[in-house]
Prior knowledge:
The chain is mainly β. The chain has one domain (2-197): Porin (Beta Barrel). 8% of the residues lie in helices and 56% in strands. The protein contains one helix and eight strands; from the N terminus they run H-E-E-E-E-E-E-E-E. It has an eight-stranded antiparallel β-barrel. The N and C termini lie far apart (38 Å). The model has no long low-confidence stretch (mean pLDDT 85).
Amino acid sequence: MKKELSIIIVILLMSKFSFGQAFTGGVTGGFSVNQIDGDEYKGYNMLGATGGAYVQTNKPGKWQIQGEIKYFLKGAEQKLPDNVSFYKEHLNYVQVPIMFDYYLSEKIFPEVGIATGYLFRAREDKDGNGLISPYPAFNPVEISFEGGMNFQIIKTVRANIRLSYSLLPIRPNPGGQVYLFNRGQYNSSLSFNLYYRILPSLTHKK
């Protein structure tokens, strides 16, 4: 993951000199609350982390496109009422969202898009005896819907809240059962992020 982030930082620095005012961008980080729909447990109990870099178009008009590459820890976690049984899924993704931003004003703009997630590490604990390789295995690629809202705090910093939900199952249900539209298990995540702009100022508000 450090290698991927280093590459993105280099790209951002090159973009500053190569593209002038055509793009803006910077770094992002935050946390997420997560669950897996389709397992036996409910609630956004799994706390994860997010972090990476982004580039956004910087052209006249209210619609802009934003590309990101980030680390995203998803999964599920549950402490059962007997205080003995324990369940945990840790899914480590490199996630690449493509977002479409609409500037309602200089301070507020919603977003919608799609993301591809590449699972590079998955660990599971079903009985409190430690994390092991999951069975059945998770799919190596996740396609997810992304939607959220941005709030400009100061000139270079904005806050973001975003929902991420798998469009395709991340793995089959136990035993391979399917129920109508439930084709397996799905990631469901709500993330809270800060974006810090390090490339040129935005010029597309008009």
